[in-house]
Amino acid sequence: MTAQSIPHHIAIVMDGNGRWANKRFLPRIAGHKQGVDVLKRCVKACDARGVRVLTVFAFSSENWKRPTDEVSGLMDLFAFALSREVPQLKADGVRLHFIGERQGLSARVLKSIDQAEAVTRENSSLTLNVCFNYGGRWDIVQAAEKLAAQGIAVTEPHMSQAMALSHVPDPDLVIRTGGELRISNFLLWQSAYSEFVFVDTLWPDFDDRALDSAIAEFSG
Ligand code: IPE
Ligand code: IPE
Ligand code: MG
To answer: How far apart are CA 69 and CA 17, in angstroms?
Structure first.
């Protein structure tokens, strides 16, 4: 594969963890745990292929509506996985950014976010944006509010600068795993011109081969 056919920025809706667990008669959280390991591998695989930015949807504004034990399990897993993985991510040159509404997140989660961003701030290989408590509509509204508060005209370039992913170019490729053909309030503004690849593979089964085939579909 030539460098030219490798997307600069890949965004992923990591869907299907619950079904992966159900198929194995495991609790849904087991699927989310497996999903973290798959994300770790995916970060390495993207870096090895020359992808510069990876943006993943980890927890949506709507996911609060899930049963409280699943929500608290996801919050615990998020904080735990971050503290466990950040040293290796730092060593690998990965820079972390967290995208989403901070209000409503626990002190523990906020602390793990702040630490992960601070520790990886100087890194410059792959940029990993984790969308957590994120919604595309929230993003558009917060951008418009920011402009209004500063008395700046609402234009496309000003909006783009005020949006949550203004530090990276728009995604070239958006992948959704898990077989659903919808965007579920992901990067509504930023994916205006992205290629979409929808795959049936459940996120915990998404391996290097699945990544390569999504990239090949994009290149074609
Ligand atoms: C995606 O997997 C992960 C999160 C939303 C946190 P799901 O939990 O939505 O898994 P399915 O879609 O029910 O299989
Ligand atoms: C999208 O998956 C959100 C994340 C992957 C974090 P969902 O499973 O929450 O989306 P719906 O419910 O299928 O729209
Ligand atoms: Mg789902």
So the answer is: 15
What letter does residue 15 receive in the DSSP assignment? Answer: -
What confidence tens digit (pLDDT) does each residue in 178-201 have? Answer: 999 999 999 999 999 999 999 999
Q: Look up residue 185 and give its two tokens.
A: 């309030």
Q: Respond yes or no: is residue 15 known to be catalytic.
A: yes
pLDDT tens by residue, 59-76: 999 999 999 999 999 999
Contacts of 145 (CB under 8 A, 6+ apart): none
Is residue 185 among the annotated active site residues? no
- Report phi then psi at 12, rounded to 5: -130, 130
Q: Beta 9-13 vs 173-176: how paired, if at all?
A: parallel
Report the atom number in ligand 2 closest to the C-alpha of 184.
14
Can you read off the two tokens belonging to residue 186?
């992901």
Give residues (CB < 6 A) around ligand 2.
13-15, 57-60, 63, 180, 182, 184
CA distances from 49 to 6, 125, 159, 211 (A): 7, 12, 31, 10
What is the pLDDT confidence band of residue 151, given thresholds at 50, 70 and 90? very high
Residue 217 CA to residue 220 CA, distance in Å, equals 5
Looking at 112-194, which runs of residues are DSSP E strands? 127-134, 173-176
DSSP 169: P
